[in-house]
Design brief:
Blueprint: H1 23-26, H2 30-34, H3 38-41, H4 58-62, H5 68-82, H6 88-104, H7 108-122, H8 126-139, H9 143-154, H10 162-173, H11 183-191
Helix pairs in contact: 5-6, 6-7, 7-8, 8-9, 8-11, 9-11
């Protein structure tokens, strides 16, 4: 199976644990989301590799103030609806993003196991493992572990296929991705330490 390209996680970091609204208030028409493809629902790309990226899927819900938890529930329901058709990597993306959304809603206890479970396929490489360690350290309010994970991330050498990965990512998302992967997201966690989990890279 071809390698999945994931949107940079600084775009996915959900910010501020605002009071959460009921699911029905945030998701007026669940069926309009539950029937979307993985690319549209989870990656937020519409159309795929044809013009600039447009917000789609759970991001439309998560962008609404106080709807992070509702977006997480929508992700869980979408994954349950589409379970039989998902590749393991797609299931990991979805689980990880649900965890980020739970964190965005302020439920760190629910977020951490989802993030760790989703990371098993999604972040199996050394750079990915270092990023996940940084993210979990942030959610556990462990600054020393966060800084240590950042140092581990910076020490990971650039892989030989990184330029090709960047090229394909640029074509799909219309954006650049720096090496080491997720260093910008990790630096956001360091900058925002002690504050609510930063959803869109702001704190």
């Amino acid at each position: 199976m071809r390698r999945l390209l994931m949107l940079p996680l600084w775009l996915l970091l959900l910010g501020g644990a605002a009071p959460q609204k009921p699911y029905a208030e945030c998701v007026a028409d669940p069926e309009a989301y539950l029937g979307l493809s993985f690319q549209e629902f989870d990656q937020g790309v519409r159309p795929v590799a044809d013009g600039p990226r447009q917000e789609a899927g759970w991001r439309e819900v998560a962008r609404q103030a106080g709807c992070e938890t509702a977006a997480a529930e929508l992700v869980a329901r979408w994954r349950a609806r589409n379970e039989a058709t998902l590749y393991p990597e797609q299931r990991s993306f979805s689980t990880f993003h649900e965890g980020q959304l739970r964190a965005g809603g302020g439920d760190y206890a629910a977020a951490i196991p989802l993030i760790e479970a989703g990371a098993q396929h999604m972040f199996a490489d050394p750079a990915g493992q270092a990023y996940v360690a940084a993210l979990v350290a942030f959610l556990r309010s462990d600054r020393d572990a966060l800084l240590a994970a950042r140092e581990r991330l910076l020490a990971v050498p650039e892989p030989p296929d990184w330029p090709e990965f960047q090229r394909r990512y640029r074509e799909q998302a219309g954006q650049e991705m720096k090496w080491p992967r997720n260093i910008e997201a990790t630096d956001t966690l360091v900058r925002c330490f002690g504050k609510p989990y930063p959803l869109w890279g702001e704190c």
